[in-house]
From TrEMBL:
It comes from the Eukaryota. Its EC number is 6.1.1.10. It comes from Sarcoptes scabiei (Itch mite). One of its GO terms (molecular function) is ATP binding. GO terms for biological process: methionyl-tRNA aminoacylation. This is Methionine--tRNA ligase, mitochondrial. Pfam families: tRNA-synt_1g. Belongs to the class-I aminoacyl-tRNA synthetase family. Keywords: Aminoacyl-tRNA synthetase, ATP-binding, Ligase, Nucleotide-binding, Protein biosynthesis.
């Protein structure tokens, strides 16, 4: 009889729903079904959206939670001070890490979030020499700038790796010895076109000619020079079939456009050449010596990629493995060809999940020192706050394509979204005029719709918000989730303008339920918004929950499942009946 309502749902589909969602959401569906028996078409419409949401995607995927237990940024090269691109990569990874913790059902589960600095190689040696600086001291100074930046940006890393550390040298030596013992390393003469800027030999299919007739890398535009020397070589050629199987069947690269492009490149391979993994000490003195041969130094990229093993505890037992990588599109080759090949050759599991992002332009131009348009991330944090610059980068950063940075756009986005949209809603719903008792009222959904029928679309949007953010965040598309949140907040702010609640206060005897229904929807939406935005703006999120006096167990992603449901209503009536009288300024207009 239940299924003979406005919405027809088969028993099999409900079984699928039960398989995907247990606990509070099961209560939610039962509540919805009871409502539907009342044949209220408005409630039925809301219920239909919730059911579709539930059936569309498993809310808490154990696979993704597991894959996100070990998140790693690339380690950043210390030939220069950090720029806005470094900050974006690290904040992006931090948001993933915070999100992973928020959806994890295991509070005590181990996790690693690693970042750090890459401190060896010819470029660093030359840069330090040009500044008349001791190389080790130069690396100390620049590395400390990266650590300082990440601390100021509230990046919650658990490990900061430096390739000059002894623990890392031991990991590199062990990894090298394993590969050599398994027959994947041999010594031979190596020749080819070499990019000093990229510190890499460039294959023929990635070489083009510029207007001056010079050979350059088609990927980076850097000038190439022919180079010959005797090096240690890694047998990449024998890994071709395993790499193709890995890219086709074993790894997920997000966004999909990067995965698709890489698959096309793999399918077009005729051969895969072996690669040099060492450099002669006669031209490079700053690096890790190859085991058993002090005349050679470990190639900087072999050295750098091994940092992920270092973070996991190698050469001892790995604490977690494999890592989820967050990388820029310019280093896909190293992380999606060389790195998995090294790992599989050592009989270690290659990555299963890689998030790749595009670059930032300044006023639609590539940032460069020569143009004088490189953005100082410290200055951005000083001007816009840590949460402010995090919000802008993650809202305006589109991983699949390059994004544009300008001071005006930062100011406009933060003023519009954080100060006006979110800040205005908080100020309205907690103002003395509209909420003189400073309460967090609670009503059954039937009561809300009875006294405030204009809110049905907002309730529907609010209930979809969590699952849409979950899907967007899992895909690394934070901007999609943020836009969903902001669009819902705009709807409820528009509702304030429509019903003009300040006029209801003149006759609370008649209008109390209508006014308090609006306050309940507003405050509950703000509570959920703070949870969904916590990976993006952790400080703002915390201040909102403190303002609303929300208990810790109601600050979790799990508690967003049953928004406006009876389960939350019963618990939260005790937990947050009063809001703090302290004024909250979410974000001061710039």
């Amino acid at each position: 009889m239940i299924w003979d309502c406005t919405i027809s749902i088969s028993a099999n589909r409900f079984g699928l729903f039960q398989d995907h969602f247990k606990g509070p959401l099961t209560t939610t569906i039962l509540t919805i079904m009871k409502m539907m028996i009342n044949s209220n078409p408005i409630i039925a419409k809301i219920s239909q959206s919730c059911i579709k949401k539930a059936l569309s995607k498993r809310l808490f995927s154990n696979q993704y939670v597991s894959d996100l237990n070990f998140i790693a940024t690339p380690i950043f090269y210390v030939n220069s001070v950090p720029h806005i691109g470094h900050l974006y990569t690290t904040v992006y990874a931090d948001a993933l890490n915070r999100f992973s913790k928020s959806i994890s059902s295991k509070e005590s589960s181990r996790s690693i979030f690693a970042t750090g600095t890459d401190e060896h190689g010819l470029k660093i040696q030359k840069t330090a020499t040009s500044k008349n600086s001791d190389i080790s001291k130069f690396c100390d100074e620049i590395s400390s700038e990266f650590r300082k930046l990440f601390d100021r940006a509230d990046v919650s890393y658990t490990d900061f790796i430096r390739t000059t550390e002894n623990r890392h040298r031991l990991a590199v030596e062990k990894f090298w010895n394993v590969l050599e013992s398994r027959g994947f390393i041999y010594k031979s003469k190596y020749e080819g076109y070499y990019s000093l800027n990229d510190e890499a030999f460039v294959p023929e299919n990635m070489i083009t000619v510029n207007d001056l007739g010079e050979k350059i890398s088609s990927a980076t535009g850097h000038t190439l020079h022919w180079h010959e020397e005797e090096n240690y070589i890694f047998r990449l050629s024998v890994m071709k079939d395993r790499l193709i199987d890995w890219i086709e069947n074993q790894v997920e690269i997000k966004p999909k456009n990067f995965h698709t492009a890489l698959q096309a490149d793999f399918r077009n391979w005729d051969t895969l050449n072996d690669i040099s993994i060492s450099r002669c000490r006669s031209r490079l003195s700053w690096g890790i010596p190859t085991p058993n041969d002090n005349r050679q130094l470990v190639y900087v990229w072999f050295d750098a990629l091994t940092n992920y093993l270092t973070a996991a505890g190698y050469p001892n037992e790995l604490k977690l493995w494999p890592p989820c990588h967050v990388i820029g599109k310019d280093i896909i080759k190293f992380h999606c060809i060389y790195w998995p090949a090294f790992l599989m050759a050592a009989d270690l599991e290659p990555p299963k999940l890689i998030y790749c992002h595009s670059h930032w332009l300044y006023d639609h131009k590539k940032m460069s020192k020569s143009l004088g348009n490189v953005i100082d991330p410290f200055d951005c944090i000083e001007k816009f706050t840590s949460d402010g610059i995090r919000y802008f980068l993650l809202k305006e950063g589109t991983p699949h394509s390059d994004s544009n940075f300008s001071i005006d756009s930062v100011r406009n986005v933060l003023n519009s979204d954080l100060a006006d949209n979110l800040g205005n809603l908080i100020n309205r719903s907690t103002s003395i005029k509209l909420n003189p008792s400073q309460i967090f009222p609670h009503f059954p959904i039937e009561t809300i719709i009875k006294f405030l029928p204009e809110c049905c679309e907002i309730i529907e949007s609010s209930r979809l918000m969590s699952s849409k953010c979950l899907e967007a965040y899992l895909d690394g598309n934070f901007y999609i989730g943020i836009n969903e949140i902001m669009n819902t907040l705009r709807k409820i702010n528009a509702l304030y303008n429509q019903i003009e609640p300040w006029k209801l206060t003149s006759d609370l005897g008649r209008n109390r339920e209508r006014l308090e229904s609006l306050l309940y929807i507003s405050l509950e939406l703000i509570r959920v918004t703070a949870i969904l935005l916590e990976p993006i703006v952790p400080n703002i999120s915390k201040s909102i929950h403190e303002k609303l006096n929300i208990d810790e167990d109601l600050r979790t992603w799990k508690s967003t499942e049953n928004i406006f449901g009876s389960d939350f209503d019963q618990r939260s009536r005790r937990a947050c009946a009063k809001v703090s009288a302290k004024k909250l300024f979410v974000f001061s207009k710039i």
